[in-house]
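Sample pair:
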Amino acid sequence: MSTASRPTPGPVPALVARIRARFDEGHTRSAAWRVRQLEGLARMCREREAEIEAALRTDLGKCHLEAFSTEINYSAAEAELAAKKVRGWMKPDRVSTTLVAQPGTSRIYKDPLGVVLIIAPWNYPFQLAVAPLIGALAAGNCAVVKPSEVAPATSAVLAEWLPQYVDPEAVVVVEGGVPETTALLEQRFDHIFYTGNGHVGRIVMAAAAKHLTPVTLELGGKSPTVVDTSADLAVAAKRIAWGKFTNAGQTCVAPDYVLVERAVHDAFVAELVAAVKAFYGADPQASGDFGRIINPRHFDRLKPLLDSGTVAVGGQHDRDDRFIAPTVLTDVAPESPVMADEIFGPILPVIAVDSVDAAIAFINARPKPLALYMFSSDKAKQEAVLARTSSGGAVINHCVMHLAVHGLPFGGVGESGMGGYHGKHSFDVFTHHKSVLKKPTAIDPAIMYPPYDDAKVKWLKRLL
């Protein structure tokens, strides 16, 4: 299909009606159709790598490796895995049949939900549109994809290329801003998958409630990092700096702040400063490996946060270039502005605590985060943090890397979101697991039916 023949979405109600008619035809239910779509998504990632990378560079200043590893290759690998596994995922699961329901067979069927809406964010604008779509198509659904207007170059790439690699009657991209999203949320969908902030998440959930539409909300929060006295400080500093400053800190699972035991605070900060300088040099603005803030509005939101503590490294900024240097802050008060909300930028507060117990109390006094990181060589302390805190996911002695494990569900808890996806979990999100009992009619024991005399009651009570 040429670019010129790319279908235009048209009015939202008509678009949703058209795509629902496509689902009702039944074509999307077959394994062959699903595999074709998944293979098409993988080919799009591989064949259009240059165009996708250029869009990500325009929107976020992403370097080649960041764009490839966190967006393009990640999405391709997810699609390739799903294409390989989907036939098995689709098969009904047999479960044991209780004695009272015998003779019979019990199975769980995997039904597509129907027409789903995917609302993607701007920070990983390609991956976070495509990864949920992989699950939706693997499950046999039709989908409306709403990319973020805050990342317009990537939105345009998705609108241009998706219809050329997947069934354009089953997958439609709707570009635009708040009016288009509002119009979409007025429609009835069979599932809504939203990635973004909690404020809009509440709007999405309220709109979905009008139609009793189930939702998956991938939100965020202030993901804490704990460093104790037994940690390898040099390794911890490098891994935390990498996790924090990738994508200029605009990552929902980036370490938001560090709680470090007081006895190693100064040594850890020194290692963190050394890691930042080793990664990005004396002039991070000139580094080809450091990204940019998405737009001036977010720059203006972040810049005042630099005054929330003492700058150990970084602090430079340039609004015209949407640049804020990778910055580490010390002497940060818990009630300071940088600790009020998720930072979502390249500013890392480091707070000294007296013990791991104090760190746990600090974390538990705040909303449940999307991720939690712990650096320690003490297994008892590792387990204490895991057992006594609640977070969407957790990593011991690294940051962010749990997203690279396709078998682990990714999602939040409490205010950091609801529902998890990736790998087979993406298939499950967009699938109705239908309980089916099949019974023969040749055997129809009279004991099941009234009138219930004493003998029947005696035997039925044993069977039940």
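Confidence is low (pLDDT under 50) at residues 1-8.
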